[in-house]
# Entry
Amino acid sequence: MVGIIGYGSYVPRYRIKAEEIAKQWGMDPDAIKRGLLLKEKTVPGIDEDTITISVEAGKNALKRAEIDPQEIGAVYIGSESHPYAVKPSGTVVAEALGIVPEVHIADYEFACKAGTEAMFVCYSQVKAEVIKYGLAIGADTSQGAPGDALEYSASAGGSAFIFGKEKVVAEIVETYSYTTDTPDFWRREGAFYPRHSGRFTGEPAYFKHVIGAGKGILEKTGLKPDDFAYAVFHMPNGKFPLTAGKKLGFTKEQLEPGWIVPLMGNTYSGSSPTGFSATLDVAKQGELILLVSFGSGAGSDAFVFKVTDRIDEVRDKAIKVKELLENDRIYLNYGQYAKFREKIIMNE
Amino acid sequence: MPSPRYWREIPQRYRLEANKCKKCGKIFFPPRLICCECRGQAFEKIRLSDEGKIITFTVIRVAPQQFATQTPYVVAIVETKDEVRLTTQVADCKPEDVEIGKKVRLVFRKIQEEGKTGILCYGYKAVLV
Ligand SMILES: [Zn+2]
# Structure
């Protein structure tokens, strides 16, 4: 049996409310909250980035897996905000977690689905018996341009998953990927903020790929939506995952535990993985979970997981996503937020 | 902070690696080559606990240039569960939240950047728990 043997998440303490951003740009806060179903989003501290978030999430995954980090044979980090353009985030993360030097390291990039890419490759490496354990992380400190709709959602956080064959918490039943060339969202080398093609990001990008991957994996497994206890879809805003779930035949109740976007925002590569982590926090033995990511460009990875009885042994060994999202929040005003996110030009 | 020194100190900065004297059990952080208690030279490599408490602290209001945007911030002497003391910034808090004796956890954070094009230096900071 190949699957997840340990999982963990991390979310920075700082938050900004949707109305605080709306006020700054003279927008109607209620229209934004209703339209996007977003209340607030996470903001990284001045000293936090994809590397530090990955380390903290990785520590939590190790607490649950209870293995010697030296036995991890691969560290794959998916992000669209790797701090270095050249030098993998994984080198720092593996060093901090005590995994080096006998380890294969690579960073992944695929807009918001880089985290599930890392998971997919780790799973394959364990299944092929190339490595005993693999660590896959999806983390981001995403940025939206000031005044852009993305500014209400682009947030920070991440989740880590350790794959192995023994003491499995959630077995991987099936995987499926669905990818095309769709220029819905991009950032050219050297550009600070990403660009997107407005309306184009909905139907031909998000829905086509999420629903394509969802239908594909249901067909491949012969499973029906009501065979699943839970489903998690990538969360660029509050509305899209609910609509995608409905179109595929899932209820709001199935999505609820993983639908963390109203408090978290869109954590890009960390979005659906953290929704999945929140779902594992409440899942029970024998339950099936569907996870479908989405990355602009564009593609979706889908996974079917089956939860084992070991979930009850590991669940309380690290902090849960709900606690990360609801405890110890520090709220920022727009000025503090602009300073934190380095949106202000300073003298050298 | 020059890069070679940062690189040499990675084990203690990233993983809180310390030396424990095999003869008398004293723990040294940063690691030392000779025990100042018993002159022992054989050590066991250990990782410090990430749990600790604040022994004392100060509030930095005028900071070196690379930390200027973070003022006011707190620098504290923290004692870990292994009774080792280290100096560290206390992140994610207002100075008025910090008190002697309060419990902290050591977390992994970016400490500084070597300018806009240099390396990023990571290490430990404390957060209140
Ligand atoms: Zn000694």
Summary: The pocket of zinc ion is lined by residues B 21, 23-24, 26, 35, 37-38, 40 (CB under 6 Å). The two ends of chain B are 29 Å apart (CA to CA).
